[in-house]
Each structure stands twice: as C-alpha cells, then as structure tokens.
Design brief:
The chain has ten helices and ten strands. The chain is an alpha/beta fold. It is globular.
C-alpha cells in the first residue's frame, strides 16, 4: 500500500470544493482500496504514544470561529481494534497505549471525507508524543512498514511549512496562493532533502537555518511528514501534489510514496 503525507491546511477544505480538496480526491483514485487507514495527525499530541481503539470514533471539531456548516459534518467511519493492536505490535521501540476517548480530529477527517466519502473504511489515529524529539518519531515509524504489507493506508497529515502567527490574508480567501520568501525557501529545501533521501537532516531540522526555524515554530505539523518518510523504501517513487504556498506562511505540499 502506498503512504501519503497530506498538507491539510484550513478545516474548510473538508467542505469546500477547491484545488486542494480536489487534489486529495484525485490521489485517492490512484490507490487500491485500503482494508483500514492509520492516520497520524498534527492535532493529537499526548504524553506518551497512544492509538485509538474504539469501535465508533467520534468526529472531533478541534477548531473555532468557522461557519456552522462545518460543525454539522459527521465522518462516521468505524474504528478497528485489529489495527490498533497491529499498530502497537509494529511500534516495537515504544510502549503504545490504547485510547478510548479521542476519535477523529480535523487533521484526519477533513482529508478522509474528500478521499473516501462513503466513510466505509475503518480508521485509527496514532498520537504524537509531545515529550519526544523529531528524530524519535522518525525512528519508531520504521516498523510500520509491516502495516503497508497488510493493506493498511498510512496517512500522515500536517503541513511542511506552518506558521499561523505570521499568516497574512490578502483577501477573505485563506487559500490565496502566495508565500513569503522564507516559506518558499524552506519548502524547497525540504523537497530537495526528500528527493536526495537525506531524511536524517530533515529529522534534525533545527540545524537547517533561519528559514526553517520560521517555517517550523512548533513541530506538530512537521513531525507527521517524518512518519511518512521513514516508510520510504530504497528505490520507491515519491510524487508531489498540491505543491502551493498559501496565506504567506503555510504550504500545502503533499506527497505519495509508492
């Protein structure tokens, strides 16, 4: 099964028909149907590593100030206790707890609602241990290739460049396509390092210069990308899509491995 990193951007992408949501729909059509989906979202940070293990994960509205239409959306995909346990088994380098209270946050469901609108594929989320450095996340993810072999789609959801404190709206459209020089510089550097398989440097991103420090003021939107890259095998193809800057200080750059 291929692996995806999705730049998810605004929650409104989950209900709008725009270039980015259409990009998610297009990439979904290139995939074999997964038996289940494991999502690593920027929006579930915990002390320790957890995986959801409920039969019916709730739709979480972890945002505010958006139109009421967005809060009425449900994504009623089933959970999977099988995938929760398989994920625990795959993450040999860390103890992984089972969670029964979280659900599907917007980093997960806004993307899946466009990719798999029938919500008929079981979905499990894996949390980000906020006490650990980026390199740790890259290292533990490598064991999850066993899930790919079993038909599980691993979907990492964040943004390569994500600095909300410096967002600039030139219009009412959050998705207006322009980027500050430092945002474009950082995004291009990330792609160069990805293309050259220099993943350890990406994991040690704090040593990559001033533009990258502006691009990653906090790590939660960047770290999911490391999970996806850790699963890339030698010689596997990597294809970019939705490769655009928005609102000055974010990029929607996404990629498919395999």
């Amino acid at each position: 099964m291929p692996v995806l990193f999705i730049g998810h951007g605004s929650p409104m992408n989950g209900i709008e028909d725009n270039e980015f949501s259409r990009g998610w729909q297009t990439i979904a059509r290139t995939l074999p149907k997964p038996i289940a989906i494991l999502c690593i979202s920027a929006h579930w940070e915990t002390n320790g590593t957890l995986v959801t293990a409920m039969e019916k994960p709730r739709t979480i509205y972890d945002f505010y100030g958006f139109p009421q239409e967005l809060y009425r959306v449900q994504y009623p995909a089933p959970g999977s206790t099988w995938l929760a346990q398989e994920t625990r088994n795959a993450l040999l380098k860390t103890a992984t707890g089972l969670d029964s209270s979280w659900g599907l946050d917007h980093g997960c469901w806004i993307v899946l609602r466009k990719m798999f609108p029938d919500a008929d594929i079981p979905v499990v989320q894996l949390s980000l241990d906020l006490t650990r450095p980026a390199r740790y996340h890259f290292d533990i993810a490598k064991g999850m290739n066993t899930l790919r072999k079993k038909g599980v789609l691993i979907l990492a959801s964040g943004n390569m460049v994500h600095n909300l404190r410096m967002v600039t709206l030139k219009s009412s459209d959050f998705n207006a396509q322009f980027g500050f020089d430092w945002a474009i510089e950082a995004n291009e550097l990330f792609k160069t390092l990805i293309d050259e398989n220099r993943f350890k440097e990406l994991a040690d991103y704090k040593n990559l210069g001033e533009a990258v420090q502006l691009a990653i003021p906090t790590p939660e939107h960047y770290v999911p990308m490391l999970y996806a890259l850790a699963l890339k095998k030698d010689g596997e193809a990597l294809t970019y899509f939705n490769d655009k800057p928005i609102a000055g200080s974010l990029t929607m750059t996404s990629f498919k491995i395999g």
